[in-house]
Amino acid sequence: MFKKSSLLLITLLLIAPLTACGGGSQTSNNSSTSSGPSNRLETIKKRGSLICGVNGEVPGFSFVDENGKYSGLDVDICRAIAAALFDDPEKVEYRKLSAQERFPAVQSGEVDILNRNTTWTVSRDTTNGMEFAPTVFYDGQGLMVTKASGVTEIKGLAGKSICVLAGTTTEQNLADQMAKIGVSDYNPVTFEDADALYAAYQEGRCEGVTADRSQLVARRSILPDSNDHIVLDAVLSKEPLGPGVKNNDSAWFDAVKWVTFALIQAEEFGITSQNLATFENSEDPNIRRFLGVDDKLGEGIGLPNDFAARIVKHVGNYGEVYERNIGQPLGLGRGPNKLWTEGGLLYSPPFR
Known about the structure:
Layout: H1 2-34, H2 40-47, E1 50-54, E2 57-58, E3 62-64, E4 70-71, H3 73-86, E5 92-96, H4 102-108, E6 113-114, H5 122-125, E7 130-132, E8 137-139, E9 141-146, E10 161-165, H6 169-180, E11 187-191, H7 194-202, E12 208-212, H8 213-220, E13 229-231, E14 239-241, E15 244-246, H9 250-269, H10 276-279, H11 285-290, H12 307-314, H13 318-330
Parallel strand pairs: 1-5, 1-6, 10-11, 10-12
Antiparallel strand pairs: 2-3, 3-4, 7-15, 8-14, 9-12, 9-13
Helix pairs in contact: 3-9, 3-12, 9-12
């Protein structure tokens, strides 16, 4: 009897920890599965429209006119996503967000995607809980001054006031550059809103204004005395701008990522909104896959197989988007925003 009791006790002692360990692990896994991140892509499909967070105050990127119509490169990225999902680029609701509002709006679910001339940085990609899709505009921070000021370089702004948006990489970069060149007696005047920022500069409350160089050129174009202002040659930073979504939702992130790549790849193939029909019977297997004629690439992304064709049909390729919003109205050359085949930085992975 003693031997049997001892054997039973030893067996129970050996099994109990394993059971507890195994049971605990199983419970944790089940909990993780049941309470895992929701699929934003399916939510958007059921809703039937996309909610896109934009700036609304930067011509060429996202600007809303007096009739409430939005336009710009950032806006067209959102239109491309709607075209891919719904075959209708107008199924987008735009939310105008300030620099301070943009990240909380993504995290709270107020918007599905942020496409607000936002720079991809390590802290935003990690501690801010964002996931950045491919860069759609490679930019750099600059400075604008009046010709009458006589300022030709950054050091010339020593002792002067500089308008800058609060809570942005622009504010941080300005401080870094001034410290780097040993200028400590400048006065940064911060604003929460871009319109207020440029209004203050125009009124002479600041002797200079700093922002992305593309934004400075865009805002200069709508100043009543635009020829009286110059953007200095100095480039203060790297500013890779692109769409961002909430972290930990791979299905939605993949969809945004490959819609963006489709704009770039369409230009590389030479497929435009004007000649799309001539490619539908192409014998090139790469183009047939891309347009959804062969294979089912879209299904793996949760998109229709012809999603790329829809994008080109309704919005065009990246080159068309750029020229329509930035090239023609602002006179900005492509620069690093050319395709990799032309010496630029735009490059899409293979569609296969």
